[in-house]
Every structure is written in C-alpha cells, then in structure tokens.
Amino acid sequence: MDKSDLNELKNMLSGLVEEIIDEKLDKITTKHEQKKEKKQKYRRRKQKERESGSFDVGSLDLTAAEKKELAQASKSDKKNNVHIQKERLIKRRPSGRIEVRCRSCGKTEKVSPALVVKDEDGYRYKCNKCSCSPG
C-alpha cells in the first residue's frame, strides 16, 4: 500500500463517518420535541379509545326476543329521560366563618364552623396556641 491508497481509504472512511454522524444528528430531538411527540401520541391514543368506546348494537347477532327486549328498554329510557345526561344543578356554597372565643385564653377569632365542637354545655373551641401548649 502506498500513500495514495492510504489517502483514498482515509477519504472513504471520513465520508462514511460524516454520513453516520449526520444520521445520528437527524435522530436527536430536543426535550421540547419529545414532549410534543408524547402529547400527540397521548391524544391519538385517547381518540382511538373514544372511537372504539362506542358500542354498535347492529354488529351483534341477537335473537328476536333479545331485539324486542332491547327495543322496549330503549323506549323506556327515552320515556324516563335516562339517555339525557343531567348536569349538577346544586352548587355548594362556601361556609361562612363564625366568631368564637377560646375557652383557655379568651381570645376571639373567626373560624370555620367545622372546628367548633358541640358539647352538652354548648359549643367549645380552643385556639391553635392553646391547643399546642402543654397542659
């Protein structure tokens, strides 16, 4: 092997190395691209689930009695408005705070009614400072 053969080999190998590096650079993605791809996969999977989630009664092999029963059930559902999804009509209102006095130190505070304990003598409450202190 003489010098020209070695130079030829060197050029061939450098071309191959460059091609390999270019391929690897094309495959490298940023974190942003990875997140975007992950979201797209998730959305596609959810879309497929929604599409496959719909139940097709026509594809079933039902007997005449089963078809009759199914027709009666759907009539009953329509009559009773079962097929309509109802929205939640009642919204909970946030409970107001009440003013109470600590039974240990006498400090007056506004607190949630859930923190006040009902006793046979009425209501009792202990503030945080008194609850944490020993005794």
Any idea what the radius of gyration is?
A: 37 Å
Range of strand content:
5-15%
Largest sheet: 2 strands, antiparallel
Annotation, overall tally of beta strands: 4
Order of helices and strands: HHHEEEEH
Shape: flat
> Fraction of residues in helices?
40-55%
Rounded to the nearest angstrom, the distance between the terminal CA atoms is 97 Å
Q: Please identify the structural class as seen in this structure.
A: mainly alpha
Low-confidence stretches: none
For the largest beta sheet, what order do the strands appear in spatially? 1-2
Number of helices: 4
Overall pLDDT level:
80
What would your notes on this structure say?
This protein is mainly alpha-helical and 135 residues long. 51% of the residues lie in helices and 10% in strands. It contains four helices and four strands, in the order αααββββα. The chain has helices spanning 3-27, 31-53, 64-79, 128-132, and strands at 98-101, 108-111, 117-119, 122-124. Strands 1-2 form a two-stranded antiparallel sheet. Strand 1 and strand 2 (108-111) form a beta hairpin. The longest helix has 25 residues, at 3-27. It is flat.
